[in-house]
Amino acid sequence: MSCLFCRIIAGEVPGTFLYQDDRLVVLQDVNPQAPLHALVIPRRHIATLNDLGPEDDGLVGEMVRRAAIVAREQGVAESGFRAVLNCNREAGQTVFHIHLHLIGGRPMAWPPG
Ligand code: 5GP
Ligand code: ZN
Q1: Which one from 45, 97, 99, 101 is the annotated catalytic residue?
Q2: Are 76 and 40 in contact (CB under 8 A)?
């Protein structure tokens, strides 16, 4: 298995999980860009947003709603947080297994760089 996130989910590579269920996990980012930086990752390998099908609509909804729940648990729901999905090279995607960045705990600029 060559995918880093599949290997972390399988327990072959260590990771710190904030949440796990049968469909997705929430992993602390190893290189946090803010006081809260977690990754909401489906267990099933999907390389990019371009590979989503209509059957994945529920899964993507769960990812977004889980991000909001973790944001509340981590105390940033009211102050604010970002939920970011990068798709392919120019957007900065480096791990080709879809993941939602949950970022919060500091003010953020717009537009992003
Ligand atoms: P992308 O650039 O693909 O949108 O995001 C990949 C994210 O995965 C980056 O924020 C990066 O810090 C994180 N990351 C890369 N390698 C590891 C790792 O081994 N463990 C964890 N927990 N996060 C990682
Ligand atoms: Zn994978």
Answers
A1: 99
A2: no
**Pair 48, 96: CB distance under 8 Å:** yes
pLDDT tens-digit map of 28-87: 999 999 999 999 999 999 999 999 999 999 999 999 999 999 999 999 999 999 999 999
Give me 49's structure tokens: 């947003």
Does a structural domain hold residue 53? yes
pTM above 0.90, yes or no: yes
Ligand 1 close to Cβ of residue 32 (< 6 A):
no
Q: Is 99 a catalytic residue?
A: yes
Q: Is 10 contained in some domain?
A: yes
Task: CATH number of the domain at 54, please.
Answer: 3.30.428.10
What HEC string does 81-103 produce? EEEECCCCHHHCCCCCCCCEEEE
The closest-lying atom of ligand 1 relative to the alpha carbon of residue 31 is 12
Question: Does residue 112 lie within any of the structural domains?
Answer: no
pLDDT per residue over 9-35, tens digit each? 999 999 999 999 999 999 999 999 999
